[in-house]
Amino acid sequence: MKKNASVIVIGGGVTGLSAAWWLARDGVDVLLIEKGIVGWEASGRNGGGCTHYQSPLFNEEQRLWPQMDELLGYPTEHRQERVIMALTERQLAQYQDHGEICAAMGYRYETLDPKQTRELVPFAGDNVVGSVYYHFGGQANPQRTVQAYAWALQDLGGRILQHTAVSSIIVEAGKVKGVETSLGRFDCDHLVLAAGPQTGALLETIGVYLPVAPARAEMIVTEPLPLMKVGGVDGNGLYGRQTLRGNLAYGGGPHEWLADTTADGRPPEGGPMSRPATQLLQNLSRRLMELFPKAGHVRVIRSWAGIIENTPDGRPVIDRLSEPDNLTVTTMSGVGFGLSPATGHAIRDLVMDGVCSFTDIGKLSLGRFANLPRDWRVRQGWVPPIVQDYDSDGRAQTAQA
């Protein structure tokens, strides 16, 4: 096994895969190291949304998604357009405000009345007061997409090393020289850290502080239903999509705050953190039935629980550090999938050129948290429940919720 590369990417989620693919397109010798299976966690199991208008990466996200099948050479099942349904007048006004923000950037949307909404979304009921119809954005299949990134990366000569946990970053003479893993040391000229919930703990091994709080998120998948005209429909606090097979795949809180993740990804105190909880599944199911009353008869056939890292302000961190200056860090705070084409491009630019070529990402720098108190999670109330024990099904038994 060749135990060095020009660039090592830690993390086989959608962000790490996209970054590695963008680098390989430039002929860079890149090695991606993943503690499990690429795309196996949140990157391959999410709502698939591609409409992040509040991000400085938004324009690049919208430019790239319609091209991704051709660029990667494999299908992502990207479908353009998205509907945001409102169940109250207040929600509708809020969604119209969002639409106006996008319109100011040159993107088209329209407001639909209840009748028009039910014609476009046949599962909607009499409780809908209207919707906002985005003629941009859309959704893609997360599992197909991470698979496409991985295959495209390998087609370009990039290497993927799975089931290999990184335990620490090696710095010598002020430069990153490599990483220590379960298979020994791997050397590199530049390191890209995109390890999701483990990113903060890995940076701590070299004295760099990245504030992130892991939380458990859940999604449900239903039996297949007749296909809607627009597959991406949000509302009632839910995000998700209809698969091409017809299943409804939806998530959207509430979620459970977790203790900080270890560098190698092991659950704190040995407790399982990725098991679905009956109460959350019931909550998601109820709200999905409220959003789609005419699909209230459909059964939930699958569920998923996984860990998503969250920054204090909810914005991603995408930054090439000044010390060590051959380390690029990214953590996406729950919006990694849709932004992945643009994020990978930005990381490629930071590694190769030192600056993002297509937009100003200064507001996403790690430096914005320089004066953040270390007890920020307590101040914001982002603290996990007190775990007493785990039952036979692996569910946490808590003293407080």
Brief overview, please?
The chain is an alpha/beta fold. The protein has ten helices and 19 strands. The model has no long low-confidence stretch (mean pLDDT 92).
- Mean pLDDT equals 92
- Return residue spans where pLDDT drops below 50 for at least 5 consecutive residues: none
Backbone CA Rg: 21 Å
The biggest beta sheet reads: 8 strands, mixed
Portion of residues within helices:
25-40%
The helix/strand class is alpha/beta
Range of strand content:
25-35%
C-alpha end-to-end distance: 47 Å
Report the count of strand segments.
19
Could you give the order of the helices and strands?
EHEHHEHEHEHEEEEHEEEEEHEEEHHEE
The shape is: globular
Determine the number of helices (DSSP H or I, runs of at least 4 residues).
10
Describe this structure in words.
- The protein has 401 residues and is α/β, with parallel strands linked by helices.
- Helices cover 26% and strands 25% of the residues.
- The protein has helices spanning 14-25, 58-64, 68-72, 89-104, 114-120, 142-155, 199-204, 278-291, 336-353, 376-380, and strands at residues 4-10, 30-33, 82-86, 109-112, 130-134, 159-161, 166-172, 175-181, 184-193, 213-222, 233-234, 239-242, 248-251, 256-257, 300-310, 317-320, 327-331, 387-390, 396-398.
- The strands form four sheets. Strands 1, 2, 6, 7, 8, 9, 16 and 17 form an eight-stranded mixed beta sheet that branches. Strands 10, 12, 13, 14 and 15 form a five-stranded antiparallel beta sheet that branches.
- The longest helix has 18 residues, at 336-353.
- The model has no long low-confidence stretch (mean pLDDT 92).
